[in-house]
Amino acid sequence: MTTPRTEQDAAQLRQTKRSRRASRVAEAASAGVKVLLVKIVLLGIVDAISVYALFVLVMKQDWVVVGLVAFVTLVVNWIYFSHQKLPAKYLAPGLIFLLIFQIFVIGYSGYIAFTNYGTGHNSTKADAVNALIVSSQERVPDSASYGLTVLEQSGEFSFLVTDPDGTISVGSATSPLRVVTDATTDATGKATGLAGYTSLRFADIVAQQQAIAALSVPVSDDPNDGSLRTPDGSSAYLYVSDLVYSAADGTMTNSSTGVVYADNGKTGSFVAPSGEELLPGWKVEVGFANFVHAFGSESIRGPLISVTLWTFAFALLSVLTTFGLGLFLAIVFNDLRMRGRNVYRVVMILPYAFPAFLSALVWAGMLNPQFGFVNQVLFGGADIPWLTNEWLAKFSIIFVNLWLGFPYMFLVCTGALQSIPTEIQEAATVDGARPWQVFRLIKLPLLLVSVAPLLISSFAFNFNNFNLIYMLTGGGPRDVTAGVNVGATDILISMVYKVAFVGASRDYGLASAFSIIIFLLVALVSIVSFKQTKALEELN
Amino acid sequence: MMVKKKALLAAGAVLAAATLALTGCSGGGAASTASSTAAAGSGSLTVWVDADRAPVLKDAAAAFTQETGVEVKLVQKDFTKIQDEFIAQVPTDKGPDITIAAHDWLGNFVANGVVQPVELGDTAANYQKVAVTAMSVEGKTYGVPYSIENIALLRNTALAPAAPASYDDMVAAGKAAGTEFPYLVQLGPDADPYHLYPFQTSFGAPVFGTNADGSYNANDLSIGNAGGEGFATWLGAQGAAGNLSLNVTSDIAKEKFLAGASPFLITGPWNVPDAQKAGITVAVDPIPSAGGQTAQPFVGVQGFVVSAKSKNALAANEFLVNYIGSEKVQTALYKVGGRAPANTAAFEAASSDPITAGFGKVAATAVPMPSIPQMGKVWQFWGVTEAAIISQKGDPVALWQKMTADIQTAIK
Q1: Count of structural domains within chain B
Q2: In chain A, what residues touch B91 (CB-CB under 8 Å)?
Q3: Structural domain boundaries, residue B224
Q4: Which range is the signal sequence, renumbered to this chain (chain B) (predicted)?
Q5: A279 touching B, CB under 8 A?
Q6: How confident is the model at residue B31 (pLDDT cuts 50, 70, 90)?
Q7: How many CB atoms lie within 10 A of CB B241?
Q8: What number of helices (H) and strands (E) belong to chain A?
């Protein structure tokens, strides 16, 4: 297959420019028609979707995304309608995915690390003001419930209310309640209409509900007496609001205590002179505050060193143990004298086939000191605290990770071993090398050439192996006298989870800052290791 | 030629998918904006609901639409993901008008400004008091409750014919039954403060003190009072006596009870169907007091809340207060979920079932699980300290006071 093609290519090279164009026309006229059709249809679909998206986005006035979508669509059309740019044709889809799912996500996390995004700061200032005002509406305790009919007169809404005594009054946002006597009432005595006004039915109310829900009718000329509002359009209640927002100077004032909460421009919230903070606040950029917090606060700095050490130890030991066992088994099962090798190989790969978090849960059950399989059956009912003693828990974590991880190394090493030519081995034997020497001086270095990058990626994976830690020990056991929510088997990523996500509160800013730090650590280790493995490649 | 054509086809397909994904990213928001602008005009409600309750809500929604002309769109969601998604989506205007919620999410919702108060008006009297209290934050009601859930004492009537009057009674009856465990309560490596809470309250040591209106006062951390120390001492003694074991996880507790290895299990209604399936005749009793006072478990209340950014607040209120809150819908919700209804009339009807009545009786004396944000910081110290006390890792009172100090520092 390859040989004729090469010849053809060589022949093509010799062709003149003119004949190349001629052959292209011929190609387009023959088999190329179908391809061209498919291309046009596919690009048509893509363009149709893009145009639809553009319409929607223009309506939404999201100009940055409009620009992006238009640009990407143009570039894609340009690439695929052009006759050259073959590499771009292959690379473009992958690049687009890379931009959306990798670069954008990483960039966004990086941005979040410099904000206070999280519980209490998850939206804009306008939303925070709205939420504070809405929540500050307080129904006057034990006040009456008024029967309500919403009236309309030349575009202005009024409340026609019947209090529990049967007194009927009318009022609007601009004119306080006044008693009326000429209203029409239904059988229950609730006023339903008033001359000169139109009574709204529920459907009309729903159509105008934003205006009606915002309507507040003062009960008297004194605003402190409160005002009537309706939550559902059929009854009204007396409310007082204790927070007043002043848009001019951007402050919240508590009208009952007189305390002024000002936006200090730093924390993204309204803060009183006493330091009391109103929640919700809003999202603001906080510079390096999250990084300072990550290293500055005692609850994090205290355990940080021991956790970092354990993370490195865990990742390193995981790689070494899984690689060691995987390599040993690969060599054993690679020996042609062994019978039933395929059966063993399948059995060996089984742990790899189970979802890791499920296996971790099963192991957690098996390592239960009193009822677990390990203590009950293997240790004859001994009470060994596998997961609750600091050092045994560390051992258990590495052991379970060995069980989970060796099949991968076994597979990789089997493949790599089989690709090492047997002649080299034979030559070494002829030269008088002993089996151990053959392994150490010939097989292992050749193996490492292809396996070393995988070992590095395995290290990076285990560095962030959140599932295993979380499912097996939850980071425990914890020293309760230390006063921090970090246990003996917590690695960096599980510590970040515990520190940034306490209960239901989420501190995405801090979590992102930590992610960047972890990313830098892993990147550093990987770069150094890859540099080292360059030396190995020179073996070949 | 074949090779080239295939590659081109594949590339085209990938490109189409890529562009779809790209426009999906930006277009997702755009589409829902379009729908919510439409919503403001015609009046339609979007409601997030979990799969179990969706069929019931469908009927209620149909009735509501017929009567008011307001369309209700039900969106099925995974219940465990609703809290985070609601908080993330409401600020972007993509959230629903109404969502189903557990009451202990409310503190978080309020701190994030994603919910608005709901005025129950005179209908507040139609609900059990604990349900309305649970749905309130700082005295304001934020949701319409539909169910109440709490733990109680599950008794295997074949092994223990009578309800125990006190904790000692229960242990004695358990020992008399000659089973492997005198009683069972699920713990784990980090204990289980939720299941141990009734014992703690029986010593008079609630986590937080309460205000006059029944809401929790975060400034009054009462867990470390004299009662708390009494509870810690008791916990240590029970751990030493082997009545409490950290090795009994939730799975093991249930499995052992189903196997008849204990006459008693402290658990919630969720384990009753399996016990009955295992052929055990169960009765539901109040949890016996260990410290002399009433053993009050936590109550979890579920309900529906309205988004702070809903453009259909009136219709949403109307739907919740007058439809979801009605006896008919609450009874229907009880039938699919088995959780005791929050509506008093519906609850009384459901009480013809002795199991529901038994849990309901305990709920009447129970307390809502605190929804104030400070509660999140309590859990991280609470369980491990109980675990340390049970496994005899130090002086119970000293450990308990250390925990109280740690919590106090964390919630400041």
Answers
A1: 2
A2: 122-124, 127
A3: 151-297+371-411
A4: 1-30
A5: yes
A6: very low
A7: 10
A8: 21, 18
Residues B265 and B356 in one domain: no
Pairwise CB contact (< 8 Å): B11 & A93: yes
Q: Does A96 contact B at CB distance below 8 Å?
A: yes
CA A462, A463, A464, A466 dihedral sign is positive
Q: Does the beta-carbon distance from A388 to B391 stay under 8 Å? A: yes
Q: Packing angle between helix A390-418 and helix A341-353, nearest 10 degrees?
A: 130
- DSSP bridge partners of B283: B155
DSSP β-ladder status, B44-50 and B98-102: parallel
Residue B180: name the closest of B84, B256, B267, B102 by CA: B256
ipTM beyond 0.95? no
The domain containing residue A328 runs over which residues? 310-481
CA-based nearest residue in chain A for residue B376:
A503
Q: Helix, strand, coil shares of chain B as percentages rounded to 5?
A: 55, 20, 30
Mean pLDDT calculated for residue range B74-96:
90
Q: What is the mean pLDDT of residues B356-373?
A: 90
* Widest distance between CA atoms in chain A: 120
Residue B5 within a domain: no
> Are residues A339 and A432 part of one domain?
yes
CATH code assigned at B354 = 3.40.190.10
Lowest mean pLDDT among A131-140, B102-111, B258-267: A131-140
Task: Please answer whether residues B395 and B229 qualify as being in contact, where contact means their C-beta atoms are separated by less than 8 angstroms.
Answer: no
CATH number of the structural domain spanning residue A428: 1.10.3720.10
What pLDDT was estimated at residue A324? 94
Query: According to the 3-state scheme, what is the secondary structure of A125-137?
Result: HHHHHHHHHHHHE
Q: Are residues B256 and B313 in the same domain?
A: no
Residue B303 has pLDDT above 70, yes or no: yes
Structural domain ending residue among the three candidates A481, A501, A530: A481
B29 contacts in A (CB within 8 Å)? 60, 62
In this prediction, residue B298 carries a pLDDT of 94
B222 touches chain A (CB under 8 A): no
Would you place residue B2 in the very low, low, confident or very high pLDDT band (cuts 50, 70, 90)?
very low
Provide the shortest C-alpha distance from residue B368 to chain A (in Å): 17
Q: Check whether residue A440 and residue A332 sit in a common domain.
A: yes
Residues B254, B397 share a domain:
yes
Given a contact cutoff of 8 angstroms between Cβ atoms, the answer to whether B248 and B184 are in contact is yes
Which of A308-312, A368-372, B120-124 tops mean pLDDT?
A: A308-312
pTM of the model: 0.80
Domain contains A396: yes
* N-terminal to C-terminal alpha carbon distance within chain B: 72
